[in-house]
Design goal:
The chain is of the alpha/beta class. It is built from 5 helices and 5 strands; from the N terminus they run βαβαβαβαβα.
Length: 128
């Protein structure tokens, strides 16, 4: 069964490209454009991996991760690994992501092969 990946990013060009890339690689991507939409998806679907942009309106990637983790804990569900992507070098957000122990932190634009390798590595580590 294809690994289900939730992509959370408010940039339509990015999400369209990621959806196409991941589907081509045999994954089952779902796209949302906000943290609130991500939380709604988490409540109704199971995912193997989250890929989140840091900078988004209303709820940024760090806030979204925190909200999803809280929901999963309250529901007694296993945490979902996260990969954070960003086009901005923000030391504070990077430190927050490190403190949250996200699985990976990737700067845009990224090399497609390295990105896919990171996804596969995170999914393999989570299956152990």
């Amino acid at each position: 069964m294809a690994k289900r990946i939730l992509i959370v990013d408010d940039e339509a060009m990015i999400t369209k490209s990621l959806k196409k890339l991941l589907a081509k690689e045999g994954f089952a991507p779902t796209i949302v454009s906000s943290g609130n939409e991500a939380l709604d998806q988490i409540k109704t679907n199971d995912f193997d991996l989250l890929i989140l942009d840091i900078r988004m309106p209303q709820m940024d990637g760090i806030e979204t991760i925190t909200a999803i983790r809280q929901y999963m804990a309250v529901e007694g569900k296993d945490p979902i690994p996260e990969i954070v992507i960003t086009g901005y070098a923000d030391e504070n957000k990077y430190k927050c992501a490190v403190d949250l122990k996200v699985s990976a932190y990737i700067y845009k634009p990224f090399d497609t092969n390295e990105f896919l390798d990171t996804i596969k590595k995170v999914l393999e580590q989570n299956n152990k």
